[in-house]
Structure formats: C-alpha cells, structure tokens
Amino acid sequence: MTTIHPVAGVRIGIASAGIKKVGRKDVVVFELTEGTSTVGVFTRNAFCAAPVIVAKENLARTQPKYLLVNTGNANAGTGSPGIQATQATLACLADATGCTPNQILPFSTGVIGEPLPVAKIEAALPAVLADLSADHWLLAAEGIMTTDTRPKVVSRQVEFGGESFVITGVTKGAGMIRPNMATMLSYVATDLAVDTALLQQALVRAVEQSYHRITVDGDTSTNDACTLSATAQSTLPRIESDNELYQVFCTALDDVLLELAQMMVRDGEGATKFFQIEVSGGKTEQECLDVAFTIAESPLVKTALFASDPNWGRLLAAIGRAGVQDLVIDDVTLHLNDVLIAEQGRRADSYTEEQGVAAMAPTDVVLRVSLNRGAAQTTVYTTDFSYDYVRINAEYRT
Amino acid sequence: MTTIHPVAGVRIGIASAGIKKVGRKDVVVFELTEGTSTVGVFTRNAFCAAPVIVAKENLARTQPKYLLVNTGNANAGTGSPGIQATQATLACLADATGCTPNQILPFSTGVIGEPLPVAKIEAALPAVLADLSADHWLLAAEGIMTTDTRPKVVSRQVEFGGESFVITGVTKGAGMIRPNMATMLSYVATDLAVDTALLQQALVRAVEQSYHRITVDGDTSTNDACTLSATAQSTLPRIESDNELYQVFCTALDDVLLELAQMMVRDGEGATKFFQIEVSGGKTEQECLDVAFTIAESPLVKTALFASDPNWGRLLAAIGRAGVQDLVIDDVTLHLNDVLIAEQGRRADSYTEEQGVAAMAPTDVVLRVSLNRGAAQTTVYTTDFSYDYVRINAEYRT
C-alpha cells in the first residue's frame, strides 16, 4: 500500500447507519476547511440520481463545506420524493454543523429504486461528526465501497521549489463502469490553492484520460461523481494562471486519477485480467476511441480474454465493426504485448500459437492496434468477462 | 416442426468434407434453375471474409446458378490467399457442373483465421452433387449449423387468387449476432417470378425488420449473408410492379424472415430467455432503436434477465445512457408484459415486487418502453447473458 498523505484542511468521518447491512460502514463525511475550492464532474446519464441533481445545483451556487456520502442505497429512480429525501439529510447535517444545506454536496451509491432511509442516515450523523480526522482517507475508501473487493486510495507528495504539496484521492466502483462516468464515486483533494476555473480545467483533463478511458461492462451509472477540492493550506503560492506549478499539479493529478481508474478496472466485477488497449495511427482521437471501446466492450473479445485465448479474429472483427470510415483492414497491425499477431488482414507469417498463448498468459495483457492511417492515438483499460461477472450481477439485489 | 414446402427450381445437396469434425455435414450446395433471380445482403463489417468479397463481386456480375456453403472454417482473416482459396473451390464446382466460376456464390462460416481446406471441399463436391434433391431443406438447415443447437427452417405456402406460391428459408447463427448482420447465413427461395429490383427491395425491407432487429452479444460477424432467390416456377404471373401479389409476397417474406430471426435469438448462445423489447413514443425510429439496442446489449440488463430479476433500475439506467437528445426520464413508462413497473422516473406506485417476479418468470418476456415524446416505434429481440454464454465463448476454439 502506498503511503497516504493527509490533506491539510480535510477531515473525514465514517460511521455505520445500517442502510443495507448492519454494522457496515456506510456513511462518510468530508469536512472542507474555510477557503477550499471544490469542482466536480458528474454522470452524463439522462437518468441521474437525486443526489447528483442536488449536488450539481449546490456546487453551482456556492463552495461546499461538507461532502455527505452514503452507500447501500443510490437514491436513483426515486423521483421527486428522492430529491426531498436528499434535502432532508442535508438539512440535518447543516443543523449539526452550522452551515447551510446548500453548502453540502450529497452522494449516494448502491441499489437503485429504493427509498433513501433518511432517518437511519440522520441517526448516524453524530457518530460521523465525532469521528472526523485528517487521517481517515483509507477508512473513507472502505466506507464508499459497494461490490468493490478492496479500498482504492492513491496519494502523492510532490516537491516543488523546495516546498511540497499533496494530492490524495479515493474512489469506488467495480461494475456499471463506463466512461461518462463509471459507477463510481471519487473524492480527491490537494492542499494547494488553485483558481476555481483552473481547478475545473485540471479535473476535466485528468478525468478525460482516466475515468473516461475505462470500461468494465459498458454501462453508465446514474450516480457517478468525482470532486476535486483545493484547500489552500499549502505554503506554495496560489495558482492563478497556467504556470509551472499548475503544470506540475496537473501532471500529478493525471497520475493520481489514472492510478485510481486502473485500480477500478483491476477490481472490476469478476475480473481475472487487466487489458490495456492502445490504439494508434488513427486519423482522429475519436476513431481511436471508437476502435478501443468496441474491442473493450465486445463480449466475444472479453470471453476470449477470460480464456487467455489469443483470438485475433475476434479482435479484427471488433475493429471492423467500430464504424471507422473507409477503414482498410489490411493496413491494421495487431500486437499482443510485443508479439505481432496479425497484419494484412490475416495472421502474421511470423506468428506462432505458442507466442500468442504466452502473451495472453499473464494477468496484464497489452494489445497494440495500429490503424496506420494517421497520427492520433489513445489508450483504454478494461477487464475480461468471467463466470463471476455473471454470478455477481445475476445475484446482486437477490 | 412446420411443414417444409420444397421450392420448385431449387435442389440442395449436402455432404461431409471433414473440415473441422470428421463425419459432420459441412458442405451444402444450392442449385438454382435457369431463369432464377437472386439478390443478397451482406455483412457491413469492414473486416469481411474472402467469400463475402467474392460473392458480392459475382452477384454484381451475373445471376448465380449455385450457392456453395461450407461450415467449420470462415475463411476470414485470411488475406489474399483466402480469396484464392475461395476461387479454387468455385473453379472446381464450375468444372463439375459446366457453369462458370462467377455463376457461383461462395459462403463460409466457422473459425476465423485458419486457411480454408480447399482440397477437402473439392473432394466432397461429387458427393454433394450426387445428393441434390428438392426435399433437402431441413438437411440444409442442419448442414449450415455451427454453435446452433437446432436447425432453423421456415416455410410458407401462400394462396393468391386460387393459385399459390411458396417461400422457404433456412438460417444459422447463435453468437456474434448483431444487426448488419448477425453471424448468420440465410438462404431463402420462392417459386415466384420477381423483377430483380423489386426482389432486392423486398429482401432489404424484410431484413431490416428481422435480422437487423436482433442481437445476442452485440458483435457483428465477418461472414454474414442472406440471399433470396426467385425461381419463376410458379404459375402466378411474374411480378413487374408493386402490385397486390407483390404486397402479399412481401408480407409473407417479412413473416418468414422474422420467424427465422426469432429462432436465432431463441437458440442464442447460452440463452435461457427470449426478450422482446418494444420501444414506442419516440420522435424518430432511430431513437427508438438506440434505446432498444442499448437495453438489449447492456450486460447488466442481460444478467438480471438471466436471474429473472425485474431490475427496472438497470432498465432506466440503460435508457438514460442511450444518447437520446433531451430525454426526460420522468416521461418514460416501463411495462414488463402487462405490469406497469416504472413511471415518473421511479417505481410505479401500483407496482409490487410479486408482480415483477411473476412477469419475469416465463421464458418469453416482453418489455414495453414508452418514451412519450413522439409517434415512432420499433421492436428488437434478444436473450439473456448466462454462465453458458461465457462457457461457450471461452471454450470455443480451444
């Protein structure tokens, strides 16, 4: 486990409200110090959950002092009573802390369509607030888990001109994982002071190359959200322009989010493989993305991956249906790790089945697709489709 | 089993060439009488197999006298040697029958990327030709099977003005099933005489509402083809315009292709359910299709279906990410069979879990989605995602 650096200005409290399972830690509160800037990105699913609607409204209005998260219930598919339920929990936390309800961002994850158990959450809030501590990032990562099998936290301390800053983030999500966003909640904080517009720009850019580049099953959740808070507690100067410190911050943020995103893929429901798909030589990044996601979401590719079968025919078939205009399949080359497996629309002459089997054997497999028609490229991360994926999703909710 | 009506002017021969398994019937030839008009539709996968390339060329050039089909090897991902292999089999059949190679349409299905065993196919052709009979439609349906568990043949005799005509068709396909087209080969014939342009128009229309409305796993094959031959042996007048007989023919053809398409879904790899998704109230048919296919291909919906779980939250989540512009999820209503399960973005007040469980229990489940924003509608057919789907596709080729 990486060293987890607390972020000055952030305290975290966790408690058990018994929302779905008795004794399970299922309510997490992040307290953000005065002067913190927070930005966020949210699911693009038209069917978005009540807390997402409220969080977006509140974030547009003012800077939040608290993030209130529950698991066990997504408060999605709950209509206007769901909005009221969310507002009730915010009012209760606002009363207890002396802020206003719109200074709190709500987040929920778990079962869709069940009424949010407001009274249980309210009853747990005193314990959550009594638990507030700067050292609770790992507990927060555990507190937001649903079908995840392990907590996901990434932390970096970055030196800059003899001083340093910190970025620490947690995420959750294992199924219903698809860019825009995954079934994920992610909370990231830094002790830097950053202009809000620049902070938003940094988050959008980092999310684009991380959470928007992973897929487990192609489904987009109703509840996804990722926030980034800058607490302004570092001794480094406030970032007001696209300067050197901002670039260093952005690079570190990209790194943290990519590592969190990859953790989600590795912990994907039923995952036995980590499949990195690098598509290069496209005319545009979009056509590289189309090819990469068509491969990543093909059930035939994913079941072959589960079987460690170097089934390049299924790969070419997926590329061929990705909708790339005037694609010449004979120009495409495929490598598994460093083994050339297909070119000129067929198996490479140099290829042997033994090489393919060896390339597919490890947990981590890299597929390199070159379209050989341009200079654009992208990378996407996914998992295989296993018996356990079916079991988990057939049994969940029963 | 339905009565199978032979089509005057079509004879079918089947034999075993031992392409993949010794003793398995794997070569089928359709002989089409002089004066037959044949039209076809083919896969839109940019990575299309050698026989598809050759069949399209030959069909554009002249009317075929023979259709030559093999299973056990798709001759896809074989590059220019694959084209030469296909041409070699055509030359051999042309020699044996006295036609020219371009009067034959080739079709292959099976493993991708292995060289076509030309010598085996050539060696089997005398037995195939000796076997030619008008009564071999069921044997043809068996001869083109790959992972199918049962033959698929549909036949209709249609009365018209005291006379009658026949439409009989066979199809195969169980996985890699996605519109445009499925992993399917389909051969349909009628004894009517039909102008070629009208015949093509009838086929395209019927395919649009049948083979292009089914999905098992969202993958599009490299080898799909559907042909329709009109042998002109019926006593009914030749169809030269969009007259009453043409309308009757089109309706019967639609019916035959829809039944064949539904047979493919019911025999989908690992299928335990037949899921009919009716989307109505769209502004355009395309947005209805987007919603229907997003539901049909959602692994979360398909695993819930496998579990007979009325998980309407996953249904709304799929609808919400289907990309419909300005969709108001609160306007959407969902029925499972006749049970209203969700409206106003949430579970219907009248809904009980018992009703939902009862609706999901049968093999056949109808989902009705109303978008309530227009007059367009469509229907799509799919199956669930089961352990057996994973097993079949993880084990295939090993």
Rounded to an integer in angstroms, the radius of gyration calculated over CA atoms of chain A is 22 Å
Largest sheet of chain A: 7 strands, mixed
Oligomer: homodimer
Strand ordering within the main sheet of chain A: 9-16-11-15-12-13-14
Beta content of chain A comes to 15-25%
What's the helical proportion of residues of chain A? 25-40%
List the uncertain runs of chain A: 177-182
Structure summary, number of beta strands of chain A:
16
Instruction: Kindly name the structural category of chain A.
Output: alpha+beta
Distance between the termini of chain A: 34 Å
Tally of helical segments of chain A: 11
Biggest interface, residues from each chain = A-B, 66 and 66 residues
Order of helices and strands of chain A: EEEHEHEHHEEEHEEHEHHHEEEHEEH
User: Quick one: overall form of chain A?
Assistant: globular
Estimate the mean pLDDT confidence of chain A: 89
Draw up the topology in text.
The structure is a homodimer of 398-residue chains.
Chain A (H helix, E strand, L loop, with lengths): L9 E6 L11 E6 L4 E6 L7 H12 L4 E5 L8 H19 L6 E5 L9 H13 L6 H7 L8 E9 L2 E10 L12 E6 L5 H13 L5 E2 L9 E6 L13 H23 L7 E9 L2 H12 L2 H8 L5 H9 L12 E4 L2 E5 L2 E2 L5 H8 L3 E7 L5 E7 L4 H9 L3
Parallel strand pairs in A: 4-5, 8-10, 9-16, 11-15
Antiparallel strand pairs in A: 1-2, 2-4, 3-10, 6-7, 7-8, 11-16, 12-13, 12-15, 13-14
Description:
2 copies of one chain form a homodimer. Chain A is α+β, with helices and mostly antiparallel strands. The first copy, chain A, is built from 11 helices and 16 strands. Chain A has a 7-stranded mixed sheet with strand order 9-16-11-15-12-13-14, with helices on both faces. A 5-stranded mixed sheet of chain A has the order 3-10-8-7-6, with helices on both faces. Chain A is globular, with a radius of gyration of 22 Å. In chain A, 59% of the residues are buried. The interface between A and B is large, with 66 and 66 residues.
